[in-house]
User: Which sequence fits this backbone?
């Protein structure tokens, strides 16, 4: 399997700058919940989250021992998570094409303190997202569910800002048509 | 942002995974298993396991009774019983650990890739970079990665003789506190090469040189994180936990609370959360669980800026121990935490419950304004 996980952000300057050695277990303790949260919002299916978290931290293991700037770690993990989730969504799309994808139960996606209207809205949105290709679904979700900035989305999706804006707009229009909202 | 996107953004605040400590632990274990299986060395080792088992089975079949596959009555799964002699090649388990008979034949039952039962004889185990469990009668040995030790069952069902050559082995017996046995291999420093031992030819009439004796194992390290935490050296204790590969936090309320203290009292409140959560979730009947829940609530509220989680943790105190001395304070703080989380309905409900249960309570003046 080709390792397509993004490389660690290069440390700037000399060794005298503050860096931290990448420690997979320490990062897992600190960021597993964060990775799981992004994963859930991108995939929309809780039963796929554990596998995604495993894939992300296996990628971290492969980079262990490297020195990184502490401020860059969170962003790097987010990027790995987005790309891992995108690969899973592509596989899901293939399964859908051949009729092998099970329909997700999106009503159970939200926590119990959500209102019935919010629960119904997110269920419909995720069903509609399932019909979008990942290249549109992922940027839109990162923007409007996860709340990422456009530049962060462009980095995570490894594409230009202009392309990301275009894809988010296209996805938004498609969702509005599917959901019958103006 | 259009109306749909605004509504989605509001609703998505309720889109959080149920990331419990158990789930985090199980996922981490799965990562370790996958990591062990993915490297090329492990693929070769797995192939060697298959060959070694086949060879061992063939040798045993030719000399003795063949290995028996028996149904484990408790698990309903098949296990493999094996016998090894001292001159047999080491048995390689599914997780890479090896087992050898030492001074006589041994009988063991392989229960899983990382779980064996030693039935008889003295065995020498070398753990791989994954944990291992060895059952000896009614006693369980939890073996840390890279540990090396010898063990032989003794006459009494709960006794055994254990000698740790390297690493950490924890002995778990029912009704007794866990015992940790460890040994550390000292690596020579480049500046101090090991002394060379020379043997001179024996001279007739000269006294025989004294026999070489095995070096005494080093005393248990005083830098064990538990000792440091017990002494109040929380910074060093947390550093050990974070940096020392051999440092482990056992799944006991004492260890979990101590590790949490080391974390939060050294200025790492977020790192204390998983340990405290584990006490509350997995040791709910322990006397320390309400204290863990209360501490969790304070961390969420005062250090981590998560008032909703704080309110849930304080609510747990009341559920675990409604009559405990902590319950009154916890209910008052629950009300305050809901208020901080901008959840006025829940805040008022908690405030009312407080005033009903504790009409003369010491936190009355802090709680009453929440009803307005």
Assistant:
């Amino acid at each position: 399997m080709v390792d397509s996980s993004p490389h660690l952000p290069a440390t700037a300057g000399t060794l005298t700058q503050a860096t931290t050695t990448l420690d997979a277990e320490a990062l897992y303790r600190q960021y597993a919940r964060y990775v799981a949260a992004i994963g859930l919002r991108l995939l929309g299916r809780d039963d796929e989250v554990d596998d995604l978290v495993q894939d992300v931290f296996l990628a971290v293991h492969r980079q262990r021992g490297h020195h990184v700037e502490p401020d860059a770690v969170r962003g790097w993990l987010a990027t790995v998570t987005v790309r891992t989730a995108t690969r899973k969504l592509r596989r899901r799309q293939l399964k859908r094409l051949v009729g092998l994808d099970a329909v997700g139960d999106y009503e159970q996606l939200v926590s119990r303190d959500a209102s019935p209207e919010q629960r119904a809205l997110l269920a419909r949105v995720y069903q509609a997202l399932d019909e979008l290709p990942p290249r549109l679904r992922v940027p839109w979700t990162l923007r409007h569910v996860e709340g990422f900035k456009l530049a962060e989305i462009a980095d995570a999706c490894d594409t230009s800002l202009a392309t990301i804006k275009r894809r988010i707009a296209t996805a938004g229009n498609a969702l509005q048509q599917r959901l019958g909202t103006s | 942002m259009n109306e749909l996107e605004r509504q989605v953004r509001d609703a998505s605040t309720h889109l959080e995974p149920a990331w419990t400590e158990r789930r985090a632990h199980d996922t981490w274990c799965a990562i370790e298993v996958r990591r062990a299986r993915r490297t090329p060395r492990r693929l070769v080792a797995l192939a060697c396991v298959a060959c070694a088992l086949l060879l061992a089975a063939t040798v045993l079949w030719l000399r003795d009774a063949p290995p028996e596959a028996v149904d484990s009555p408790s698990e309903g799964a098949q296990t493999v019983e094996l016998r090894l002699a001292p001159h047999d090649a080491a048995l390689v388990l599914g997780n890479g650990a090896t087992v050898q008979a030492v001074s006589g034949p041994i009988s063991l039952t392989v229960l899983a890739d990382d779980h064996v039962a030693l039935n008889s004889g003295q065995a020498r185990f070398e753990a791989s970079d994954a944990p291992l469990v060895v059952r000896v009668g009614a006693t369980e040995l939890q073996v840390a990665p890279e540990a090396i030790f010898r063990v032989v069952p003794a006459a009494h069902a709960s006794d055994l003789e254990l000698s740790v050559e390297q690493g950490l082995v924890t002995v778990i017996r029912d009704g007794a506190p866990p015992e940790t046995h460890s040994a550390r291999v000292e690596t020579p420093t480049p500046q101090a090469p090991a002394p060379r031992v020379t043997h001179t030819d024996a001279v007739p009439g000269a006294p025989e040189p004294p026999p070489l004796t095995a070096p005494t194992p080093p005393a248990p390290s005083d830098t064990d994180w538990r000792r440091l935490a017990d002494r109040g050296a929380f910074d060093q204790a947390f550093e050990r936990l974070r940096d020392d590969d051999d440092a482990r936090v056992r799944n006991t309320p004492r260890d979990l609370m101590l590790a949490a203290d080391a974390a939060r009292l050294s200025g790492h409140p977020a790192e204390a959360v998983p340990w405290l959560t584990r006490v509350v979730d997995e040791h709910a009947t322990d006397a320390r669980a309400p204290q863990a829940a209360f501490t969790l609530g304070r961390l969420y509220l005062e250090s981590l800026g998560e008032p909703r989680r704080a309110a849930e943790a304080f609510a747990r105190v009341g559920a675990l121990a409604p009559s405990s001395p902590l319950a009154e304070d916890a209910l008052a703080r629950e009300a305050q935490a809901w208020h901080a989380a901008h959840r006025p309905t829940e805040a008022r409900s908690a405030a009312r419950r407080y005033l009903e249960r504790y009409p003369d309570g010491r936190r009355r003046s802090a709680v009453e304004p929440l009803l307005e």
